[in-house]
Amino acid sequence: MIGYATLGTNNFEKAGEFYDALLSGIGASRMMADDHIIIWASKPGNGMVAVIKPHDGEPATVGNGGMLAIMVDSKETVVAMHAKALELGGTDDGAPGPRGTNGLHFGYFRDLDGNKLAFYAMK
To answer: What pTM was estimated for this model as a whole?
Structure first.
């Protein structure tokens, strides 16, 4: 259902490096990049993630209550991707583990700009 999500950044180069390294762990790579936006996808037709310089020229800020969740194939991948995010300079915002009673596993982190993200698996 979701086509893409954008995350504002105040350090475009560093954000690009962070997400290049992080998202390669789930088979995603840059599918488009210019001096304003970088978009990653794992394959055409799947949801995309982008970092972007705010169009209004004002500093990017973190949305209170906003979060981007990226589905992966297993709880082991949740653990690995959460660890990779922290290794790349992200900060922990909720250790990987089960959430709820329906078998969901989440690992929460914040990127270099403070945007909140999660990797999750449904099995």
So the answer is: 0.90
Structure tokens at 98: 């089960």
Q: Which long-range contacts (CB under 8 A, 24 or more apart) does 53-58 make?
A: 53/8, 53/9, 53/12, 54/8
Dihedral in degrees, nearest 10, Cα atoms 110, 123, 77, 89: 10
What is the arrangement of strands in the sheet containing 4-8, beginning at the earlier edge strand?
A: 4-8, 48-52, 37-41, 29-33
Per-residue pLDDT tens digits for 61-92: 988 888 999 999 999 999 999 999 999 999 99
Residue 72: closest CA among 113, 22, 18: 22
Question: For the domain bounded by 4-54+67-121, which CATH number is listed?
Answer: 3.10.180.10
